[in-house]
Amino acid sequence: KIIGALIDHFSGLSHGQHGSTRRLVAGAISVFAFGALGSWLRTYLFALSSDGVARRLRKALLLSIMRQDLAFFDQSRTSELISRLHEDVNATATATTGNVQRSYRYINSALGGSCMLISISPRLTLVSLAIVP
C-alpha cells in the first residue's frame, strides 16, 4: 500500500488522503531497508550453517579415514585423500545448504505474495489459487 500511495501521490491521483510525501517516502525506504536487512541476515546465517555442516562432514570423514588399515594408506596417495576430503566436503555442504536456502526463499516469496494478494482482493486470490494445479 505504501508504494501504491507513492505512485498515486506523484501521479497526481491522490487528494491529500495519504499524508505527507515525507511520511510516504520514509515508509517506502523502511520497507526496502527491512527487506535488505532480512536478506543479509538470511545469507549470513546460511553461510554460518554451511560452514558448520562442512566442519562436521570433514571431521567425520577424517575420523573414518584414520580408522583404515595400513594397507589402505599403501594403496592410496595422501594428496588424493586430502583433495577428496577438501573438495567433496565443500561441494556437499554448499549443495545441501544452498538447496535449503533456495527452498526457504521460494516458500517465503510464495507466502508473502499470497498475503499481499489476499490483502488486495481475497475473492480474486481464491479464484486464482483454484486455477493453479
TrEMBL record:
Keyword annotations: Membrane, Transmembrane, Transmembrane helix
Transmembrane segments: 24-48
Keyword Transcription regulation recorded: no
PANTHER family registered for this protein in UniProt: ATP-BINDING CASSETTE SUB-FAMILY B MEMBER 10, MITOCHONDRIAL (PTHR43394:SF1), ATP-DEPENDENT PERMEASE MDL1, MITOCHONDRIAL (PTHR43394)
Species in which this protein is naturally found: Hemiselmis andersenii
InterPro entries in the record: ABC1_TM_dom, ABC1_TM_sf, Type_1_exporter
Compartments it resides in: Membrane
Pfam families membership: ABC_membrane
Bilayer topology annotation: Multi-pass membrane protein
GO biological process, one term: oligopeptide export from mitochondrion
Highest classification ranks of the organism: Eukaryota, Cryptophyceae, Cryptomonadales, Hemiselmidaceae, Hemiselmis
Presence of keyword Transmembrane: yes
Domain of life: Eukaryota
Gene Ontology CC entries for this record: mitochondrial inner membrane
Designated name of the protein: ABC transmembrane type-1 domain-containing protein
Residues covered by the ABC transmembrane type-1 domain: 1-133
MF (Gene Ontology): ABC-type oligopeptide transporter activity; ATP binding
